[in-house]
Amino acid sequence: MKKIILIAFLIGISSACEDFEGWNVDDKNPSEVPASYLLTSSERDLFLRITSTSVNYNIFKLFAQYWNETQYTDEVNYDIRGRDIGGNFSLYLYRDVLNDLKDAQRIINEDEFLSADLKSTQSGVLEALQIFTWHVLVDTYGNIPYTEALQGVENLTPVYDDDEAIYNDLFVRIDNALSMLNAGSESFGDADLIYGGDTGKWKKFLNSLKLRMAVRISDFNNSKAT
User: How far are the Cα atoms of 42, 54, 136, 153, 163 from residue 60, in angstroms, in the given order?
Assistant: First the structure.
C-alpha cells in the first residue's frame, strides 16, 4: 500500500511539473507579437507624436504661431521650461516607431507561411512608414543617426549622417517600396489604421511623399528635384 501511495505521489509531482514553465510567462508582456500588431502600434505612435497637442511632446505649431495659448503662455513665447521636448520627439520616433517597424519586418521575413506576394506588399507598407518617419526626423533635426541607427546596445554612439545623403537614399528607397506594392493585393487589412490595407493608396502616398521631398530640396538642388 505504501508503494502504491509513493508511486501515485511521484506521478502527481511529475505531471504537475510538465506545464510549470507556463506559469512564468507574463501574458501582458509578450516576447513576440504578430507584425500586424507592431504596424498598428507604430502608426498610432507616429501620428500621435506629430499631431499631439501636448506641450510635453510637440510644440512646433506653437513655435510657428499656428496655435496660441491663453492660460499658460510659456511655450508660445519660446520658453519650454526645461523640458527636453526635442529629445522626447526623436526618442519616440526612433524607439516606438522605427524600432517596431524594423522588428515587424524581421517577423515577416522569418514567416515561412506567408506567400511571396503578401510578403512583398506588407514589406512595402512597412518601408513606406519608415521612409516617412526618417523624412520627418531629417526635416526636424537635419543631420541624424541613420546608417548606424537602430542597432541597440551593439552601437550606442551611431554616427550622424548628412541630411542631403539621407534624402538621396530615401528617394531610392521610395522607388524600391513602390515596386514592392502590388495595387489590389491585400496587405495588413484592418491592422492598418491609415489606409485599411489598401495598397493602391499606399502607392499614392509614396508618390506624394516623393513630390513633397522634391519640393523641399528644389531651392538648392533643382536638378535632383526634377
Answer: 21, 11, 12, 31, 20
Return the amino acid letter for 25: V
Place of cell 511623399: 209
Q: 29-225 has which CATH code? A: 1.25.40.390
Contacts 24+ apart (CB under 8 A), 110-114: 111/35
> What is the enclosing helix (H) or strand (E) of 161?
strand 160-161
Mean pLDDT by 10 residues, the chain (226 residues): 60 55 66 89 92 77 84 82 77 94 96 91 97 96 94 92 96 97 84 94 96 91 76
Cα torsion 92, 34, 44, 75 to 10°: value is -10
Single-letter code of the amino acid located at 28 = K
CA distance 115 to 136: 32
What's the pLDDT score for residue 73? 84
> What is d(CA 107, CA 34) in angstroms, rounded to the nearest whole number?
7
What is the rounded end-to-end Cα distance, in angstroms, of the chain?
A: 92
CA 212 to chain centre: 20
Long-range CB pairs of 185-191, under 8 A, 24+ apart, other chains included: 185/117, 185/118, 185/121, 186/118, 186/121, 187/118, 187/121, 187/122, 187/124, 187/125, 188/35, 188/36, 188/39, 188/122, 188/125, 189/36, 191/36, 191/37, 191/39, 191/40
Question: Is-above-0.85 flag for pTM?
Answer: no
Look at the block and give the residue holding cell 507579437. Answer: 33
